[in-house]
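Hey, can you fold this?
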Amino acid sequence: MIVEQRIYSLKAGKVREFLAVYEAEGLVVQAEALGRLLGYFTTETGELNQVVQLWGFDSFEERLRRRAALSAQQAWHAFLQKAGPLVLAQKSELLLPAPFSPIR
């Protein structure tokens, strides 16, 4: 299994608005396409105004296939039109579990 960690840095004061739009319009589309949402978080300390998503995939190839399917959906593009202006930057990292990790 691999875990994709996506961190979105949002405009100051826009976390609630982003979460509301995501929950109402983005979550269902993304969850159907990507499959395994492991967690969704906001930052409380350190760098603020961020949301962090963790998605699980069986392989890098599965991730590529699922992300391509997401990108092909009109509903996803409609969501991005609303949420995109709230985002300043995004970062994506692929994480591999250690042999003793509870998430394997």
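Oh, and this one too while you're at it.
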Amino acid sequence: MVKFLFKVSGVLEGVTDLEPVDTPQQPFEYTFRIECTKCRTIHDKAIQINRFEKHEMGGSRGEASFVFRCKECKYENSANIERTKETLHYDENKPVPILEIDARGLDLIEFIPNGKFQAKGTETGTIFNDIDLQDSEWYDVDEKTNEEVSITEVKWTISRS
């Protein structure tokens, strides 16, 4: 089993506490490109992992957030994901881990930000919960202060912990 940390970094102006909108009622579908560690085949489609779903693993080995059988070598791969309690703050310049991932038989090689994120205004506490980071940036106006708020230079990193 390999443990990964999925981290986010970026420049936050006028907002803080950036995190995915990820609740049982509105689960975030974490989208990744993956590679089988047994045969080194990169899966041709991006996969989605929802931390609230559980899938049976073959051979009665329990459950995982994601179970996948490689079409090349037929090896069964799995991953469990857990959300950390961390969020990205406006005054941080280092990557912050937002997910812990236990993977068997697969490497996560790229994150695709398909989903909504949320942050709150640093001065007003206004909640922005419809943030789209597919272009690695987001701009809006905090209506309570009439000031522009933004998230720019967003970077996603996946590292072994």
